[in-house]
Each structure stands twice: as structure tokens, then as C-alpha cells.
Design a protein that fits this description.
This protein is α/β, with parallel strands linked by helices and 222 residues long. The chain has helices at 35-46, 75-86, 130-136, 155-166, 206-221; strands spanning 10-16, 20-23, 26-28, 50-56, 68-71, 91-94, 101-103, 124-126, 144-151, 170-175, 186-193, 198-205. A hairpin with a 2-residue loop joins strand 2 (20-23) and strand 3 (26-28). The mean pLDDT is 96. The structure holds ligand PMT. Residues 6-219 form the DNA/pantothenate metabolism flavoprotein C-terminal domain.
Length: 222
């Protein structure tokens, strides 16, 4: 049996990858499937929490039982949904892969290729950093905020810098690649704490990493 150590708590989890539209048929996106975020939502619910799952483009994954699922397609929509749900949350875990940039312009009609003409350069603008924003401006005193860092190299050093920049309490650093972590059933990570702690999580099911995250969150809420 699972300890209901999150009973009476409201937790918010974001999952999946945002898509930033270019025109009605095209977008800039990423390889996140949402599996890690869904594992976090399922394990939190099993430990007694009320869970709001903000899901970005996670088609194919069934809604976890007993979890409130809010759909958000773009980074802007994900930000609105996370800010709203975080208002009364004890913890927020940002497992979603949020686009740092979006196309500066949205074309209302499909962008056409014209014979003999070079394509227009793609101009991007920055999206707001949701994790940094909710960490700097906590909706509640004592709210625990967890970020994820998807890195391809120099994983730990980059993770430590990212933790400081974002201002969250915990940062789950996982290595990603074309065939690593994204979409798979397994993950491997080190959870960095703002207190200097390092909790390695060996290669295994995404649920195991999720449970370690909730252990660390529950310790900080206690
Ligand atoms: O979905 P899966 O296929 O299971 O794969 C899981 C995963 C690899 C997507 C997941 O484990 C993961 O690492 N998620 C975070 C991916 C990411 O966007 O990393 P990042 O290093 O770009 O961002 C760092 C943190 O800032 C993240 O918590 C992200 O949610 C947050 N962020 C980023 C940009 C932005 N504009 N706002 C944000 O809040």
C-alpha cells in the first residue's frame, strides 16, 4: 500500500510539449510525449493529493483516474492554466517542455511556396519563462516548486546553473536525445536541491523518478 503522504494537498503538474503555430497547418514543437508528467500525476494521486494536470499535446495518453486535466496547446495557454491552478497549490511541478520562442507572426492562411523565390526567414520572439515567474512570485508561502531540465551535454553543471537562474526549490536534470527520455517509458535523473542536495535516480520507470520527486516535495512541505 502507498503512504497517503500528500493527502489534503493540491499539486499541479504540467506535461507534454507546447506547439507554437506558424500558420493553420504548421507549428514549432518538440519531442515530449507527456509520459513523465503523467507518471507524476498518477503517483501524486496515488499518494492522496488532489492533482491538476496541465497537458500540452499529449494525444494518446489516457486521462489519469481522479485527476483534473486541463488542456493547453501553446506556451501562452500553458502559462495561463498553470498560473490559475497554482493559486491555491501546495506544489507545482513543471515537467512540460515549454517552447522558449514562438514565431513572431502568425499567418492566418497557409504559407505558400512561390516558384523561384527564397523562403522568408523565420523570426522568433521569446516566450515568458513560467517556471522563473512562479518561483519569483509564489502564490502561497511555502509553496514547493519543481522544474525539469532537459540537457544534452554537461548535464549537472548546466542543471545547477539553471536551478539558480529559475529560482525553484528542486530541479530534475535528465539527459535527452533523439532516442533518449522523450517518449520512452524509462528515465534517469539527478534531482538538484536549492539547498545543495543531489539525489540520483537510477535508470528505471518514469513512475520511480516521479515517486522520488514526491518524496522530496513531501519532505519540504512537512
Ligand atoms: O514527456 P516525455 O516524453 O515523458 O519526456 C519527459 C521530458 C524530457 C519532457 C521531461 O522529463 C523534461 O525534461 N521536461 C522539461 C523539458 C524542458 O523544457 O526543459 P528546459 O530545460 O527547456 O526547461 C527548464 C524548465 O523550465 C522546465 O521545467 C520547463 O517546464 C520550464 N520552462 C521552460 C521554458 C519556458 N518558457 N517556461 C518554463 O516554465
Amino acid at each position: 500500500a502507498v503512504e497517503p503522504d500528500l493527502a489534503g494537498r493540491h499539486v499541479v503538474v504540467s506535461a507534454g510539449g507546447t506547439r507554437e503555430p506558424l500558420d493553420p497547418v504548421r507549428f514549432l514543437g518538440n519531442r515530449s510525449s507527456g509520459k513523465q508528467g503523467y507518471a507524476l500525476a498518477r503517483t501524486a494521486a496515488a499518494r492522496g493529493a488532489r492533482v491538476t494536470l496541465v497537458a500540452a499535446n499529449t494525444t494518446g495518453l489516457p486521462d489519469p483516474a481522479g485527476v483534473d486535466v486541463v488542456q493547453a496547446g501553446t506556451a501562452g495557454q500553458l502559462r495561463e492554466a498553470v498560473l490559475k491552478a497554482a493559486a491555491d497549490a501546495d506544489a507545482v511541478v513543471m515537467a512540460a517542455a515549454v517552447a522558449d520562442f514562438r514565431p513572431a507572426a502568425y499567418a492566418a492562411g497557409k504559407i505558400k511556396k512561390r516558384d523561384g523565390q527564397e523562403p522568408e526567414p523565420l523570426v522568433l520572439v521569446r516566450n515568458p519563462d513560467i517556471l522563473a515567474e512562479i518561483s519569483a512570485d509564489r502564490a502561497r508561502p511555502g509553496q514547493v516548486i519543481v522544474g525539469f531540465a532537459a540537457e544534452t551535454d554537461d548535464v549537472l553543471a548546466n542543471g545547477r546553473r539553471k536551478l539558480e537562474r529559475k529560482g525553484c526549490d528542486l530541479l530534475v536534470v535528465n539527459e535527452v536525445g533523439e532516442r533518449k527520455t522523450f517518449g520512452s517509458e524509462q528515465n534517469e535523473a539527478v534531482v538538484l536541491g536549492a539547498d545543495g542536495s543531489e539525489t540520483p535516480v537510477p535508470y528505471g520507470p518514469k513512475e520511480a523518478l516521479a515517486d522520488t520527486v514526491w518524496d522530496l516535495v513531501a519532505q519540504r512541505l512537512a
